[in-house]
Amino acid sequence: MKYLSFIVALLLSLLVFSALNAPAQEQAVSSRYTVQQPDDKLPSTAQLDSIVLGSGCFWGAEMRYERLAGVVDAVSGYADGQGVKPTYRAITQRSNKNNPNNHAEVVQVTFNPQQISLEALLQHYFESHDPTQLNRQGNDIGTQYRSIILTNSPEQQARAQAVLQQYQPLLTAAGYGKIVTQLKPLPEFFPAEEYHQDYIAKNPNGYCPDHSTGVRFNRDSAIQTAAIDNNPLLTGKQIVVIDSESYCPYCEKFKAEVANDYQGDIPLNFRFARQLAGLAIKTDTSATPTIILLQDGQEVFAFRGYLAPDEFYLLLGKFKLGDSEAFNVAFDKGTDQQFCKEYQIFKNTPDGVFVDKLSGAALFDTRDRFDSGTGWLSFTKAVAGAVTERPDNRYGMRRTEIRAAISGIHLGHVFPDGPKGQPRYCINATVLDFMPRG
Q: Which residues belong to the signal peptide in this entry (predicted)?
C-alpha cells in the first residue's frame, strides 16, 4: 500500500507540474525589465547585441541560453502579437490557441559577440527544438509555441536566414521536413511576469522539456552519427534515464544526488531520446530526465522528472524486490525471521563486504562480524559513512534505528551490548548482498 501511495503521488505530481502552466491568479509584469524596441541603443559601456527567439515553452529555453558562455542575460517574454494582451493569461486562452495574431512565447537573449557569435547562438537555437513543427513543440500545441526569430536589423535577418539554410539539408538528410521557423523584424518585446523569469531555477524538482531533433550542425557530426548499441538493454532488468542533449539542471541534479552514488546490480543507462532504437517504450520521452524501468527491453514503469534518492530507491525496490520480505524490511521497517535462510547463508561467508541490496554501497565488513547468538547478523561497526542513525520509539521501546546512507532503506538497529563494550549492529540479512574481497 505504501508503494501504491507513492505511485499515486508521483502521478499527481505530474498533474501539479502541468497545472503550474496555468496559474489561477494573474501576476503583474515585472518592473525589473524594460520593453525592448528594435531601435533601442545598446549600453555604451558594453559591445552587446540582442535577439528574440521563440522555440516553444520559454521556461527551458531561457535557462539553456543563460548557460551559454557569452550570453549576458536571457529574459522570458511575449512578442509578435496583435490585438492580444501580452500576458500569460491572455495568450493561453482557448480562443487564442489557433489565433495567428497571438503573441509567441519568446526569450530575449542579450549576448557579447566577442564571446559568442550570432551564428553560434542560432545554431544552438535550431538544435534545441524541432523547427519543422508548426505552432507546436511536442504536446505544447498552439500559436504561442511557434518557432520564430525576431531580429533587430537587416544584417541579423540575413545572418539568421543563412544559418537556417545551413540547417535545412541536415534535417532533410535525417528524415525531417521543411523548417517552418518564421524570420521577422522585432516589433516589440514584452517581458513575462516575474514568476516566469528563471522559472526552472525556482522549481527544482521538475523536468526540462526537450523537443530537439538530435540533428547537429556539422561541427558535431561525429556525435550525431555515433551508433548506440541497445542490445544489452534487451535482457533482464534495466534502468534507462533520458538525458538532455543540452543543459538540464534536473538531469544534473539527478546525476549528482542519485546516479553518481549508484552501484546496484541493475544497470543504470543514460540515453538521449533519439537513442532508444529497439526498446519498447510507451512513455513520451520529451521530458528530461525521464526514468524508465525495463524488463527484457519492455517498459514496466516510467516517471517524467527528477526523483529524489528516497523516491528513486522506493521505485527501484518495488521493481527489484517485488512483494517480498526484503521489501517489507527495507521500506516498512520490518524484521527478518530469526535464523532466516539469508542469515544462514551470510553468517559464515568468506572474507568480504556486505552491500546494500539496492544501491550496491558497502555497508558492513566481515572483519567486524561476530556471532551474537541472536539469529541476526551482528557487527561491531559499519563501514565509515555508510549508515545513518535515528531514534526509534515504536512499540514502547527506545532504540536506535540504522539506515543505509545512500538508499535510505531500513537495515536494523544498534545496541550497546557488543563484545568488549563495543556496539552491536543487529542487521537484517534480507536487505544485503555479499561481495567477496577481490
A: 1-24
Q: Under the phi-then-psi rule, with left for phi > 0, alpha for psi from -120 to 50, and beta for the rest, what region is 232?
A: alpha
Whether 346 and 315 map to the same domain: the answer is: no
- Asked whether residue 58 falls in the same domain as residue 149, the answer is yes
CATH of the domain at 310: 3.40.30.10
Residues 234-284 have pLDDT tens digits of 999 999 999 988 788 899 999 999 999 999 999 999 999 989 999 999 999
- pLDDT confidence band for 219 (50 / 70 / 90): low
Look up the domain containing 402 and give its range: 333-436
Q: Looking at the whole model, is its pTM more than 0.90?
A: no
Residues 397, 314 share a domain = no
pLDDT at position 223 = 45
105: which 3 cell numbers?
Answer: 512565447
> Do both 85 and 27 map to the same domain?
yes
Please check whether residues 108 and 176 belong to one and the same domain.
yes
Angle between helices 154-173 and 118-127 (to 10 degrees): 40
CA gap 395, 315 in Å, rounded? 28
| Nearest CA among 298, 316, 301 for reference residue 234 | 298
Residues 154, 297 within the same domain: no
What three-state secondary structure class fits 126? helix
Out of 57, 208, 251, 426, the active site residue is: 57
426 among known catalytic residues: no
Same domain, 189 and 301: no
pLDDT value of residue 207: 83
C-alpha cell at 129: 527544438
How much of the chain exceeds pLDDT 90, in percent? 77
Total structural domains within the chain: 3
